[in-house]
Amino acid sequence: GENVEQHPSTLSVQEGDSAVIKCTYSDSASNYFPWYKQELGKRPQLIIDIRSNVGEKKDQRIAVTLNKTAKHFSLHITETQPEDSAVYFCAAKGSGAGGTSYGKLTFGQGTILTVHP
Amino acid sequence: DVKVTQSSRYLVKRTGEKVFLECVQDMDHENMFWYRQDPGLGLRLIYFSYDVKMKEKGDIPEGYSVSREKKERFSLILESASTNQTSMYLCASSFLDSYNEQFFGPGTRLTVL
Lengths: 117, 113
Hints:
The structure holds 2 protein chains of 2 kinds. Chain A is mainly beta. Helices cover about 0% and strands about 50% of the residues of chain A. Chain B contains no helices and 11 strands.
């Protein structure tokens, strides 16, 4: 099955700096890569996603890049703010045929991002 | 506004007890998922379901079972709770299409003594 590795496990930055979180995946057939943010005591929420036919996607201060050849993808947050402090999870979805694979995600281990004012 | 609710926020059970965790979604989603969240291990899939009465094993199904009798409701069952099942349990739901966002419930913090 799919295996997703996420690094670093913790990341501490000063407000205004950039933050980068990296993930690698094992299944070359994976075709969908979402990122979820979980604030302290709250549920995970989708912040950005990318499909395998796209190399980069941006949404204001966040961007995701995908390198299919190397099987890795990254989350970039620019001009970090204290409210960006949270746990971030990457995930990957394989492209297996049949309904049993629909929507099933494999998550990375999570990165605790702390943005210091 | 999508709403996924879970029956309890906190639960304390004793070893050997049968435990039921219930999840309800109100968005007519086909897919429903149960994860457990442990520090440093991320979100690990226990079971998922893509239709009523259908279930598929995830990555860590041992010691768990599930039930989906109605589309909006997905139950996680611990037949005989053990201390290593102390964890945060998260339910999620999504539409059947492969690229749809998963919406999570608030989680149930289960402690097995």
